[in-house]
Amino acid sequence: MNFGVHLMNQVAKLDLAQIRQQAINDGLLVDQSSIGKQAGFLTNVAVTPAIVDGVFGADGKHSVEDFLFMFLQLCVAQTKVAFTDNKNWGKIRLYYPMPTVDGFFKPTEVVIKSDPVTADVTIMMASEEGAHLCL
Question: Total domain count for the chain?
Fold first, then answer.
C-alpha cells in the first residue's frame, strides 16, 4: 500500500469538532459561545487568548465580558455585511480599535473564520492566522 495515500486517508478522517474542542481544552482557544449567542451569533464561538487580552481595556468600570460582548457584537455585524455583500463568510478580516496601555486605541487586524461544515466561528488576531491547525 502506498504510504502517502494511507496518510492522506487518515488526515481526511480528522474530526474538526474534536480538534476544536481539544484546542479549547489546551487553552489555544477560549469558548465564548454564551457571550457570542447574546451578541447575535447563531453558532458556537471561540476566540484566541490574544483576542481576550486585546479587547479588554481595564477602565475599572467594565468587565472582560462587557468588552467581549461589545467586540462580538461588532463581529456579528461585520459577518452580516460580509455575507450580504460577498455571500462569503468563511473568512472575514476587519480592523478593531484595541485599547493600549497608555489609554489610546490601536487599529488591529482581526480574522473571523467559520467552519464550512459546522459553521462554528473562530476569531483570532491576523498575526495568529496559520499558527493554529484547522482553526
Answer: 1
Measured at the CA of 69, the angle between CA 67 and CA 70, to 5 degrees, comes to 65
Residues 46, 52, 55, 58: what is their CA dihedral angle, to the nearest 10 degrees? 150
- Residue range(s) defining the domain that contains residue 80: 3-128
CA angle, corner 17, sides to 13 and 20, nearest 5?
Answer: 115
Question: Does the residue 134 lie in any domain?
Answer: no
Dist CA 121 CA 37 (whole Å): 11
pLDDT, one tens digit for every residue, the chain (135 residues): 455 544 444 555 667 788 889 999 999 999 999 999 999 999 999 999 999 888 876 666 778 888 899 999 999 998 888 877 766 667 888 888 888 778 788 899 999 998 888 889 999 999 998 765 445
Global pTM exceeds 0.85: no
Strand partners, 99: 105
